[in-house]
Amino acid sequence: MSFNIGLSGMRAASKDLNVTGNNIANAGTAGFKQSRAEFADVYASSVLGTGKNPQGSGVLLANVSQQFNQGNINYTQNALDLAINGNGFFQVSNNGALSYTRAGYFGTDKEGNLVDNFGYHLQGYSVNEAGNIQTGQVSDLKIQTASQEPKATTKVIQGFNLNSTNIAPTDKFEPNDPRTYNASTSTNIYDEQGNAHVMTQYFVKTATDKATPPNDTPNTWTMHVLVDGRNPKDPAGNNAEEVQLKFKPDGSLETMSSDVASGLQYDPVTGLVSLNGWKPAMQDSAGNWSPNGAASGGTLNVTLDIRGSTQYASAFAVNSVSQDGYTTGELAGLEISETGDIFARYTNGQSKVQGQIILANFANVQGLTPVGKTQWVQSFESGEPVRNPPGSGTLGSLQAGALEDSNVEISDQLVNLIVAQRNYQANAKTIETESAITQTIINLR
Fold it and tell me: What is the rounded CA–CA span in Å between residue 118 and residue 72?
């Protein structure tokens, strides 16, 4: 009996050494989770039970459990390296075979698919043609590397302050003569081909017609608009379109008005001004201006929202300006948020959502089956995966440009090696002692 007990102890110590050695070997493996050998004692049983004073029959390896505690986050220089801070696994697909990993070595293949260092496809929510994330539809994630199409400007939003202490110019408005206007500002707008055009606004304090010299008409201004220094509706002409601005005594914008024939039309219902019939233009080698053909139907409409403008006794200033058009853009880089959203940055300053990474979690993560390559697969014991974006529920968040280190603590493993070695030696001593006793019996005469 003692031979078997000693042998079981040596086998257990050997398996403990194997587990510990595997932990040490993977101390530098990103996403690796250390294992622990768990042993149980063995008792022989009979039909009538083991009795009051049973003797043990050795030891057996009950389980090799994985320890899924968090590893350290190590920051790298690769934007597509990903670390999970908290619960969850990346879901990857190898031709439809799903596996789960904490190792965030990701990049792109020649087709733009997000893949790990074994070529397995990272999965998540894709986007539709409108750029909206298709929540619930899990598929392989892919980065669109094609150029971003240009978008024509349809709306400009501005907020500016006109100096209420300004006096009306004495001369008729001329865009090339700064003495004929009080302030000006320029904004880039874009046609359908992505060509940039400079829209310039000139602000002139309105004067009374009969005063000599002219006096100001209180709180009233004229806004003149040119595009590329030309008339927006007629590139051959350089006369500006205009709209009248009326401010309240408290300095806020009260109303606007425009001539029926003007290219600037004020809508009293919405409070917006429309630049109707804009013909994007270009200049030929002879210096002549003509439409450049970058407009469906020959013209474009741009809405000006200047409802946040004011007239206070301070210097002219543009407080805010934005417009929704842009030129063609090339892919410049990728950013991944803590919630898994993948943003593509383009050279035109725009960004676009390319998809959203999901994480999977299990009711019993220790029930997952390790299959190598720092990956696990679902088993009956683990239960079904629950998939959601990072940061939702109990799932952890993502850290881009980082990897999760192995959770192996080398000092602990070295101590385990010593303990396993001593156990092996002690069990070998048990066999040696039993052998000596047996030899003594054989030598009896």
Answer: 23
The label of the residue with tokens 């590397």 reads 145
**What is the DSSP code (8-state) at residue 385?**
-
For the chain, the straight-line distance linking the first and the last C-alpha, in angstroms and rounded, comes to 24
Check the CA dihedral 285-291-296-297 and report its sign: negative
Contact in structure between 82 and 334 (CB atoms under 8 Å): no
Amino acid at 73: I
The pLDDT value recorded for residue 8 is: 83
Give the three-state DSSP class for 147. Answer: coil
What is the domain partition of the chain in residue ranges?
2-69+406-442, 74-143+337-404, 155-323
Number of Cβ atoms within 10 Å of the Cβ of 176:
7
Q: β-pairing, 300-305 with 133-140?
A: unpaired
Residue type, 122: L
Number of helices (H) and strands (E) in the chain: give both, helices first: 2, 32
- Phi, psi angles (nearest 5°) of residue 189: -125, 160
Q: Which of 319, 317, 315, 320 is nearest to 164 (CA)?
A: 315
The per-residue pLDDT for range 162-216, each reduced to its tens digit, is 999 999 998 999 999 999 999 999 999 999 999 999 999 999 998 765 445 555 6
CB 323 within 8 A of CB 154: no
Among 343, 196, 344, CA closest to 280: 196
Q: Which CATH class is domain 155-323?
A: mainly beta
Contact 393, 119 (CB under 8 A): no
Ramachandran category for residue 179: left, alpha or beta (phi over 0 → left; psi -120 to 50 → alpha) = alpha
Quickly count: other Cβ atoms within 10 Å of residue 194's Cβ.
Answer: 19
Q: What's the whole-model pTM score? A: 0.76
Beta bridge partner(s), residue 64: 37
Omega of the bond leading into 390 within 30 degrees of 0 (cis): no
